[in-house]
Amino acid sequence: MSPRWLRHIALPVAIVLLCMGLLAFGLVRLSSIEKTMRVSRASNML
Question: Which UniProt keywords apply (predicted)?
Fold first, then answer.
């Protein structure tokens, strides 16, 4: 496999996978924060 293959195929695939992983991590964190706020909603009201 040549360096040209690495630049044109592997690098974009790696970037897309990294972005999907970060998106999944963010969704998991958002879900856990939402569950935490739902448990004690009386104390979280303004």
Answer: Membrane, Transmembrane, Transmembrane helix
Instruction: Give the DSSP letter of residue 45.
Output: -
Task: Using the structure block, give the residue that is written with the tokens 């739902």.
Answer: 38
Continuous H helices in 1-46: 3-5, 11-39
**Mean pLDDT computed over every residue of the chain:** 84
How is residue 9 written in tokens?
A: 């195929």
Residue 24 DSSP label: H
Residue with tokens 């996978």: 17
Mean pLDDT along residues 16-35:
95
Q: Structure tokens of 16? A: 């897309």
Rounded CA gap, 4 and 45, in Å? 56
